[in-house]
Amino acid sequence: MKNFFYILMFPLLLSCETEPLEYDHILVKETVSAKSANDFLNSIGVNSSIVSRGEYLYQTIDFINYLGARWIRGGYGADQELDDIITLHKETGAKVCIGTSSGGDLTTASLTDKILKTRKLAEAGALLAFEGPNEPNNWSVVYNGVTGGSNGTWLPIADLMRDLYSIVKGDEVLKKYPVFHISENGAETDNVGLQYLEIPEGSSALYPVGTKFADYANCHNYISHPSWPGIHDNMTWRASDPSADSHADGLYGNYGITWVNGFSGYTEKELATLPRVTTETGITIGQQGEDILTEEMQGCMYMNLYLAQFKRGWAYTAIYLLKTHSDETNHAAFAFFNQDGTPKVAAHYLHNLTSILADNPQAETTLETLTFSIPMKPATVHYLLLQKSTGRFMLVVWDEKYSGGNEKVTINFDNTFKSVKIYDPTYSSSEIETLDNVNSVRLTMSTYPYVLELQK
């Protein structure tokens, strides 16, 4: 069991509205607006083939229920798979983002047919969104007989995205569903404008001003990156950074200044509020530069990653991979579940976290504010204030001190709480301690989150 203590203290009167980057060893009081626990849970997704590549429908259902994931980044081949997705939704509540897949040969007619068949999913409540081609830099796409992506022209990719958006928004059933952009926009060889959701006035893109491609930017901002090898403090926080300071394959290099040819897109100020999702992320167990990532550390990082992504404005995050694919066993080090179906540590940790935060998905939440302070907050410590539909505050505090060691952290509240339940998802989905009539909690932190359930 991890160490934790509590003390009674009185906070000073200094306020600010956002999480400071540094506290400079002073006590800073903040009044924070809560986010819906359901919104956070809704953001948690995984990549899965659902019924193919060594995955089986009812096993996938069991895995999704265990993790508490609420969406899947997937697709469908045969029409029967639409019925399988509906079954999965009925058994888990999870929704599916339908992508056009990796590579392939499509025409406007076949794309239209593929998209309109998903009305069946929409009518069953099983549809989340649509996604453009996966990593066209790695998988060329043939669209209307012309090859696009990789080292050639990306005009066919732009044509496909323009048409995908138009098909979805032109259908009475599907038009309310968002379109997620392609991934790896930053690899454009020619400036077709795919670094934008909608091409703005003043752009030098080849495509005309006003062309709409997507509702959300889409990145594959994996935790580790060749430009920053090894294991570092704040790796998951930095991977979620929408600015140029991110060491990941993130928003800036795909929608700001593209990473291959330096085409201009959004400014950093615009990127900060750009609607965005991640349809692939994760990290492999084993060698990371000169370091070794353990299965236990991966489990901590995956929890922290979902938290950091949501805190930093990513509406949806899908970790790669639910289960090791039978045709890509070399990707096993990413997965929550082994090829034989056994869970890894990451599966147990995420199960505990989502169980602690579980809420009625259909319930409305009236969001409130909470005033608290974290004196001398270490740079690796972050927090996310959530609120359940019951009104109960759930304050998640996590540390990303992946280089080792512990840190003492004190959270001071503006009011005394009748009880504070402390949860450690690396240990259990049940509280490890309940404190009565306290206005301060001290935690010993390192690489994972604690959850504080606050009862007024």
Write down the overall mean pLDDT.
Answer: 94
Helix and strand composition category: alpha/beta
Question: What distance lies between the first and last C-alpha atoms, to the nearest angstrom?
Answer: 27 Å
Content of β-strand: 25-35%
CATH architecture of the largest domain: Alpha-Beta Barrel
Oligomer: single chain
Report helical residue fraction.
10-25%
CATH first level of the largest domain? Alpha Beta
Stretches where pLDDT falls below 50 for ≥5 residues?
A: 1-18, 21-26
Would you mind describing this structure in some detail?
The protein has 456 residues and is an alpha/beta fold. The protein has helices spanning 37-43, 57-67, 80-92, 108-116, 119-124, 155-169, 235-239, 251-256, 268-272, 295-311, 345-357; strands at residues 4-5, 15-16, 29-33, 35-36, 44-47, 71-74, 95-99, 105-106, 127-131, 141-143, 146-148, 179-180, 217-219, 276-278, 286-288, 291-293, 314-319, 369-373, 381-387, 393-399, 407-423, 431-445, 449-455. Strands 1, 2, 3, 4, 18, 19, 20, 21, 22 and 23 form a 10-stranded mixed beta sheet that branches. A hairpin with a 2-residue loop joins β10 and β11 (146-148). α2 packs parallel to α3 and α4 runs parallel beside α6.
